[in-house]
Structures are given as C-alpha cells and as structure tokens.
Amino acid sequence: MTKTPLPRIGLTLGDVAGIGPEVTARAICDAQVRATCQPIVIGHPRILNEALELIRPHVASVPPVQEIHSLKEIDTNDSPIYCFNPAGDEVLAAPRNQFNAAAGKASYDYLLAAIRGAQAGTIDGITTAPLAKASLHLAGINYPGHTEILAKECGVDEFAMMLYLPPGEQVRGINGLAVSHVTLHTSIKSVPDLLSVDSIYGKIGLTYRFMQAQGVVDPRIAVCALNPHGGEEGLFGNEESELIAPAIERAREEFGTSVTGPFPTDTMMKRAIRDGEFDGVVAMYHDQGHIAIKLVAFDTAVNVTLGLPIVRTSPSHGTAYDIAWQGTARADGMITAIQVAANLAKIN
After folding, report:
1. What CA–CA distance (Å, rounded) separates 254 from 256?
2. Where along the chain do its domains lie?
3. If you average pLDDT over residues 104-110, what whole number do you get?
4. Contacts for 236-241 with beta carbons within 8 Å, 24 or more apart?
5. What is the C-alpha to C-alpha distance for residues 253 and 259, in angstroms, rounded to an integer?
6. Is the pLDDT of residue 2 over 60?
7. What is the per-residue pLDDT for 12?
8. CATH number of 160-296
9. For 8-157+307-346, which CATH class?
C-alpha cells in the first residue's frame, strides 16, 4: 500500500536576530510536527544548525539537516530536514538581538522564496517565523509586515489577518475561535477613515468561509463595534449605524442570521472566549482583536492570512530580541501554526 505523502510546509527562519531560528529549530525537533507534515526550512543552514546546537540539550533528538539549492529537490520519501537558502551569506554577519538591515533583507528573501515555492506547488503551505518591521525598513523594504507582502506578491486585494485558536482548553467553543481584523498595521486615528461597508462585509465573508472550511456548517460570526458601548446610540460615534450595521445586514443576506452585531467589544470577547457563543469575531482594528486573544493564548494563537491562493500561518508573537539566542524561547505557537498549516494544506 502506497503511503500518502505528508504536506510539505515551508518554514521561514524570519528575523535571524530574534527567536525565529530557535522556535523553528524546536519545531522541527518535535515528533508531532514531523508526523503532521514534511517541514522544509527556508533560511541559512548555518544559522539553523547553530540554533539546533543551542537547543540540543533541551530536546529528545535533533534530526539531520540536508542543504538543497532549489525547492524542486525536495523528495517526499526522504527523512532529513531540508534547508534551502535563497539569500546568500550576508546574513551571517547580522548582529543578534537588535534591529538591522541584514536580518531584514534576509527575512524578506526567505518569505519571497516561500511564496514562490507555494505558488509553484513545490511546497503545500508556509509557516513564517516572526520578522521585524523596523529591520525591513532599514533594508529599504517598506512594508508594514508579512500580511501585506503576501497580499502584494499573491496579487489579492481582499485579505485579512486572522488570529485562530484551535479547539482546546483556552477557548470554550467546540469549534475554536477565529478573530479577523478589518484594518491592521495602521494608526488608531486613521482607523475610522479606513472603514467602509465593503471592507467590513469582505472580512465577515473571509471569516465565515474560513470556519466553514474547518467543518463548521453555519459559523456564528460576531462583529465588533468601533466605539465604546457600541457608540451609545451615536453619542460616541456613528460608525456603528452608518458602516458596521449595514455591512452586517448585507452579510446576513448572504450567510444568514448567524452573523450578528455590532457588539461592544469588551463584553463580546468574554462571550466568545469564556462562554463559547461565537465561532468567529470580526474586529475593526489590530489591538481590538489581538489583546483578548493574546491574553488567553499568547504562546499558542496562530496567525492565518485569509484571502490568499496559498496557505500561510505564523505564531502570533514577535521577534522577542530580549530573549533571543538564549535557548529559552518557547515554540508552542510555531508548532501549532505548522500543524494548522498542514491541516489547511490538506483541505486545499
């Protein structure tokens, strides 16, 4: 009987000055990860091996690493951890634990190579270790983060960052919880001007369809208000009545009455996380969605980019320069992100 190949998931090292190499190294040493997918590391093999040596005393075993010069060299019947370096050796001189252009440029090159591999079908999905936006900018790469680069390179206009908690002890709902964002890497003062009925409606649709892909027949989607107390009948703002409510009504025409809101965010997040009333939440801005999720699942929440033609996940944490290269970084988020990517790759 022929064994079905595991999904090939490309793991970018991210910003090598941070914890990206360490959490990637810990992840490829995890037996559950290797049982779920075939991990392929995209980054410099010398940096990967350095991270593996750093964590060797703390893991049961370290798999062999084999450098390849193209993602086309991947053999799905082989057992080593493949490592593909698309960025040259300049990154080896990058300082650790601080923003720098060399690390920023390499993290960008790793991501582009992963995107190209997923588009070509040589890998089945991507899990990205964290990069530093300031290092990208020092390298002259003016994107606010992974999500926007992925959208640009994939040629999509309708996309969203979503934080996903798979079913488990951190969230009461049996289907887990998906929290997507209408706006993302922008200032608070610019958020109201960036909201529109179309943009809110689009994010509701992306969230609803994602949860359907997870096997939820009729996902319960709650939509956040923008203003305190849901705007208090216009006393604190009119975005709820002029933008958010019309978007919800439009979504209900397409998806049904399981789309509800707008709700004041403070109580709605309690209802979603602790009471399990909702399968998905649509937040209006970055911190509105992030704070609640990171409070209950900082180490295990998974960032999923919605709207792409390829699979992409990442842990929800950042580069953590303060603890990088000390052998203490936890890889729970990276491991969960890889497992989610593998499951999404099977669905796709």
Report:
1. 6
2. 8-157+307-346, 160-296
3. 98
4. 237/192, 239/192, 239/195, 239/284
5. 10
6. no
7. 98
8. 3.40.718.10
9. alpha beta
